[in-house]
Automatic annotation (TrEMBL), chain A:
<feature type="compositionally biased region" description="Polar residues">
    <location>
        <begin position="58"/>
        <end position="74"/>
    </location>
</feature>
<feature type="region of interest" description="Disordered">
    <location>
        <begin position="45"/>
        <end position="102"/>
    </location>
</feature>
<dbReference type="InterPro" id="IPR000195">
    <property type="entry name" value="Rab-GAP-TBC_dom"/>
</dbReference>
<feature type="domain" description="Rab-GAP TBC">
    <location>
        <begin position="174"/>
        <end position="377"/>
    </location>
</feature>
<dbReference type="InterPro" id="IPR035969">
    <property type="entry name" value="Rab-GAP_TBC_sf"/>
</dbReference>
<dbReference type="InterPro" id="IPR050302">
    <property type="entry name" value="Rab_GAP_TBC_domain"/>
</dbReference>
<feature type="region of interest" description="Disordered">
    <location>
        <begin position="133"/>
        <end position="157"/>
    </location>
</feature>
<protein>
    <recommendedName>
        <fullName>Rab-GAP TBC domain-containing protein</fullName>
    </recommendedName>
</protein>
<dbReference type="Pfam" id="PF00566">
    <property type="entry name" value="RabGAP-TBC"/>
</dbReference>
Automatic annotation (TrEMBL), chain B:
<keyword id="KW-0653">Protein transport</keyword>
<dbReference type="GO" id="GO:0005525">
    <property type="term" value="F:GTP binding"/>
</dbReference>
<dbReference type="InterPro" id="IPR027417">
    <property type="entry name" value="P-loop_NTPase"/>
</dbReference>
<feature type="compositionally biased region" description="Low complexity">
    <location>
        <begin position="202"/>
        <end position="212"/>
    </location>
</feature>
<dbReference type="GO" id="GO:0005886">
    <property type="term" value="C:plasma membrane"/>
</dbReference>
<dbReference type="InterPro" id="IPR001806">
    <property type="entry name" value="Small_GTPase"/>
</dbReference>
<protein>
    <recommendedName>
        <fullName>Ras-related protein RABC1</fullName>
    </recommendedName>
</protein>
<dbReference type="InterPro" id="IPR005225">
    <property type="entry name" value="Small_GTP-bd"/>
</dbReference>
<comment type="function">
    <text>Intracellular vesicle trafficking and protein transport.</text>
</comment>
Length: 406, 212
């Protein structure tokens, strides 16, 4: 996890605030803008902090009391400790482990879960109403957002509306990195989604866990499950190809990524594993502990992008057609140019849709739409796509090249 | 990289497609060809493409090279890119046998299904010959496959760049020798795109770049 604000913008500018190496052709621009990024980040932090402070006093009543000390630092320490342990292949000291003799042998502890900081709980509650509990496990039906009185018993609807408005403005400005992971969790309703031990049990189903961890790149391990779980080989292929060279994705990072993707594939076999999910999962792991990342991933893929990544990928195709229509309407010249090149709009936009700009844009801008996703609906992202198309359009008209990879 | 509009910047525009299993090195091959570099790449999501200008003999060529995602489920998405391609490169990894067997099981069938050019030139490329010690598919097998399916054949390494340029050049030479393909690819550079009337309005049929 990256949360240390001081190291966000390293001075050598070889890596950006997220730890990604800055592409050579972006270095110059990054260098020029790094001061602005930094200032913006500070501004964001300030705005969010004052928002949280304002609402902390009136709105918050810690629920489970499990993480009263600043959970951010707590989780950091924990995580750091984890990493430490991993690096010299610890023995069976996974004390938080759930039952199952296999777990004894398991090298890595995947039971990392941290509640988000108390000051974000109001947002969490606000956003959780969107989470549809599918298994009806006794949790009471959440009230509709409009009539929600959960945040504060005395809140009038207007006040609540104001809070939402304010939040919306904040989200538009982006979340500060230190809060981002936790905010995403709040937006995705992670706490409400979470079922105790679910993640662990999904992984425990795999009794040959250790073998898999040492399976070679080609995914041709002797694991009999590999026959059934055909996505396994694909995951293995993609692990080293997910943010290659990122310092967080060392062996331990990749093992975590493997567990996360494996657990998701088992959770939702109709999707299994689709390339592009590795980017989501990897990004989430940079921002939060492993199990939190799992529930966030579920939020993203089960709810926001249901049917985007299934075998047929129906919904992503539908959305692309919609965007194509929009682009046709708004930027006829752009479409004309693409037609001329024999390029379907969809082929330019498919990667946008499928990886939601992760890896598509410089990170600072790539994160903006993700912010929206977590908070809002697809409408916003469509606006973003259209804006992006507009920029492409300008770019193309000015250069008359068109085939540049956008 | 572009020239001012109105000038014919190339004599022919050819569309070339890269297909094959995930992880065989399609994107690396393309990058190696277009930028002379080899890098750790992320998996291709959906499709990607790059442009390369070549001069062969007197002819200025513009290659639009389409790089497709190898994962099975992306095939619904990638199938539409076969249309209008003058050249298709099937890539396998010489160190992974399954990527070779999938060529006849899957990829050759995909071409039959989706390619619209009867005369489209096919090329078989065995990548990663730099890992000679891990080789799992012999050169002879590659040659036999190519003979059976009527393809050109080369072994190469995107990493060491051995034979990389040859792959594309041989393909292009063969395309140039095929009159039906050059007729189709010839008109590209002679139009000023921003003054051109929108020839096609239907989104479904917009894949042909240079039909005339």
């Amino acid at each position: 996890m990256i949360t240390d604000a001081d190291t966000l913008f390293a001075s050598d500018h070889k890596r950006d605030a997220y730890g990604f190496s800055v592409r050579p052709h972006h270095v110059q621009r990054y260098r020029e803008n790094v001061k602005i990024y930094k200032e913006e980040e500070e501004e964001r932090s300030e705005r969010w902090n004052s928002f949280l402070e304002d609402h902390a006093q009136s709105d918050l009543s810690p629920v489970n009391g499990s993480s009263e000390i600043n959970p951010s630092t707590e989780s950091d320490n924990k995580y750091a400790e984890e990493k430490h342990l991993h690096s010299d292949k610890p023995g069976p000291d996974s004390t938080q482990g759930n039952v199952g003799e296999e777990d004894e042998k398991r090298v890595v502890r995947f039971q990392i879960w941290t509640a988000i900081r108390p000051s974000l709980r109001a947002i969490e509650d606000l956003m959780s109403v969107r989470v549809k509990k599918k298994d009806g496990d006794g949790e009471q039906e959440a009230p509709k957002l409009k009539s929600s009185k959960r945040v504060n018993g005395n809140d009038s609807e207007d006040e609540l509306y104001d809070v939402e408005k304010e939040l919306e403005l904040l989200v538009r400005g982006g979340a500060p990195m230190a809060l981002r992971g936790e905010l995403w969790q709040a937006f995705a309703g992670v706490k409400k989604r979470r079922v105790e031990n679910y993640y662990q049990n999904l992984l425990a189903a795999d009794s040959l866990g250790k073998d898999i961890e040492h399976a070679d790149e080609k995914g041709l391990s002797a694991d009999p499950l590999a026959v059934v779980e055909k996505w396994k080989g694909q995951i293995e292929k993609d692990l080293p190809r997910t943010f290659p060279g990122h310092p967080a994705l060392d062996d331990d990072g990749r093992n975590a990524l493997r567990r996360l993707l494996t657990a998701y594939a088992r959770h939702n076999p109709s999707v299994g594993y689709c390339q592009a999910m590795n980017f989501f999962a990897g990004l989430l792991l940079l921002l939060m502990p492993e199990e939190n990342a799992f529930w966030s991933l579920i939020g993203i893929i089960d709810d926001y992008f249901s049917d985007y990544y299934s075998e047929e990928m129906i919904e992503s195709q539908v959305d692309q057609r919609v965007l194509e229509e929009l682009v046709r309407e708004r930027f006829p010249k752009l479409v004309q140019h693409l037609d001329y090149l024999g390029v379907q709009v969809a082929c330019v936009t498919a990667p946008w849709f499928l990886s939601i700009f992760i890896n598509m844009l410089p990170w600072e801008s790539g994160q903006a739409p993700n912010q929206f996703y977590f908070c809002y609906t697809k409408i916003v992202i469509f606006k973003y796509y259209v804006c992006h198309s507009e920029r492409c359009s300008l770019f193309i008209s000015s250069q008359s090249v068109g085939c540049a990879s956008v | 990289m572009g020239s001012s509009s109105g000038q014919p910047e190339f004599d022919y525009l050819f569309k070339v497609l890269l297909i094959g299993d995930s992880g065989v090195g399609k994107s690396s091959l393309l990058l190696s060809f277009t930028s002379n570099t080899f890098d750790d790449l992320s998996p291709t999501i959906g499709v990607d493409f790059k442009v390369k200008y070549l001069t062969i003999g007197e002819k200025k060529l513009k290659l639009a090279i389409w790089d497709t995602a190898g994962q099975e489920r992306f095939r619904t998405l990638t199938s539409s890119y076969y249309r209008g391609a003058q050249g298709i490169i099937m890539v396998y990894d010489v160190t992974r046998r399954d990527t070779f067997t999938n060529l006849s099981d899957i990829w050759a069938k995909e071409i039959d299904l989706y390619s619209t050019n009867q005369d489209c030139i096919k090329m078989l490329v065995g990548n990663k010959v730099d890992k000679e010690s891990e080789r799992a598919v012999s050169k002879k097998e590659g040659i036999d496959f190519a003979r059976e399916y009527g393809c050109l054949f080369l072994e190469c390494s995107a990493k060491t760049r051995v034979n990389v340029e040859q792959c594309f050049e041989e393909l292009v030479l063969k395309i140039l020798e095929t009159p039906s393909l050059t007729a189709e690819g010839s008109s590209g550079g002679k139009k000023n795109i921003f003054k051109q009337n929108p020839a096609q309005t239907s989104s479904a049929s917009s894949s042909y770049c240079c039909s005339s």
